[in-house]
Amino acid sequence: MKKLFNIFAVAILALSAMSCNDYLDRESKTTMDDNNYWTSEGNLRLFVQGVYGSYFNGYSDNWGAVYAPGVYTGEMSDDRTTTGTQPVILTSVPGDNWYRAELPYRGYWLMRRGSGPWNLAYVRKWNLMLERLEVMKEKNILNDEAYNHWVGVARFFRGWEYSRFVESFGDVPYYDHTITAEDIDAQFIPRSPRTEVMSKVKEDFDFAIQNVRTNDGTDYVNKYVVGTIASRCMLFEGTWYIYHKNDPAMQTATNASTLAKTFLEAARDYAAVVINSGSFAFNTDFRTLFGTLYSRPSSKEIILYRAYNKSVQSSSQHCIASYSNGAESQAANGNLSTLKAWLCNDGQPYATTTVANADSWRLQDMVVTRDPRFEATFWDEPKNSSTGLYCEKFIDRIGPTYAYNGQSRPTCYGSCTNENGYPCVRYAETVLNWIEAKVELADRFGGAAITQADLDASINALRDRPLDATAVAKGVKKTAHMTLGNYPDDPERTSAAQQATLGYQTVGAVSPLLWEVRRERRMEFFLEQYRVLDIRRWGQLELMLGANNPDLLIGGYVELDLSATLTATQAEGLGRAAQTTNLKKTLNNQGYNLLTIANIGKVSVMPIEGTNADGTLKLGERRFFQGTVVDGKITTSNYDQMRGFLVPNNVSDRDPLNVNVRNYLEPVCGQVISQYKEKGKEIAQNAGWE
Question: Do the bridges between strand 422-426 and strand 302-306 make them parallel or antiparallel, or are there none, so unpaired?
């Protein structure tokens, strides 16, 4: 079924914004209003579907980037590095409630934080729906089953909306009913402690998981969508209380230690509803999930999908695939921190693996020595990005070939006219939420010990995902299963970078098993807007500062002396013999040539010096490209020394204020504070932002 999310959005949102008192004396017979709208399940479906795009964003729309994959622009996380100074989060309280400090739309902060704005419009929408459902029940428009289903849907979205609100701001005002424009006191209520708000959210999710239909049609909200998203929200909250229990902003929280366990148990149990259904499995290769054109792929991994097809709706297009096709440069991409995190295919990290040639950091070698998701995620040669790493995860296998085959690129791969769909809710998240919650419960709260069956149902099931023909032809192999009691103990787990984080300082090093569960999330969800939420809830925002995490400011491995074909004439100008590039996927075999006159003194690499005693990588001093130019030619240079990890041009660290403990939460903006004062009310500012 090709279901697009924007249908009737404007009309339905306008309806949802009506005041409870906006009734007409006489019902209109030709137009929909609040008097005559609430008459059928079909209208309820349209009311909900009209805002699917705000929750199940997929690739967003056209040039949109809010919650969309980060190849165009995206989250603030340790997975992305750019040239110049690294982007900021916030260093001062913004005046505008839409946080327009940098870009003229509210998405700037949403896409960087991965959570929600200070906006109660959708809370009101779901409260309005709940109130209208009561009227529909009284009029016998809905039977008990339909009534409970739609109440469950409304409560699910209200819970999700509040969860995202809390992720950004912590304590927030809580409403479980609509209010009128005249009720000033109700409009400007104080913030409730996050523990109280999220307990209400759990009540909403509990009702939804019990009452939302198992099947309400393809790619509509069902019990399994609820189970996966609810597990995400509860996992965030439960782990937040573990790693942030000493934060100043948590001083208003009540009963947080007990609720941490409660919320983690809820995350486990919500996900278990999906797992125990037996309806889902990993039967589709990784790239097919993200790169299928026009319609939903036949996959048991997809729980809810967003299709793009301009022949159905002209605005149903996006720009993300065009930033994965090899022609568009990627302003930010993976770094050395990312590369180190990827497992080798024997299930061991790079420092302890026995896989042959795994000590080579050449992308051409890494694609066959690492977990298969590495090959499915990255272009297998250095490419035009700030770090030399280029993500092609969000496109099919055909799209990138136009970067080097000399043929015209179809519109479905270009500009903002992409038409590949996105798995908005997928089973991979379900099982990873489930196993993480179980490990946290076992490690912190005396929960049941993890069994081999638990690992087989989650991490090992993911590793059994099929490979496509392209990966097989390259020699890619599935990663070995994780076995109980024999999982790695990665030296990076207790590294200096980890010890600099709030989470480490609060509870110490995590267990080796929990470390591996977190690694699995990082490999699975690269640039999917999960990482920023993960590092915030784990208390690892400090990893976004190069002073704590030097790998953040270093890119992928390159061999710039072999990066382009040199004719005899070109080679003469460089004082070298003619050579053939080691790069094959470039138009006319032009390669990735950074060693030009313009880049003398700008391009630099960090060479490999060896390994430390624990097997971790040891780098040498940064080496800049140097040369002497005579008559427009480089006559002498250190061309042969340009092998190592590429350092983004002019790279510099972000302001340390960005990883201050206060920055785990957004500040309440000046506009909201002023509005409260104008009404003779007060609202508390987040700790550290006063």
Answer: antiparallel
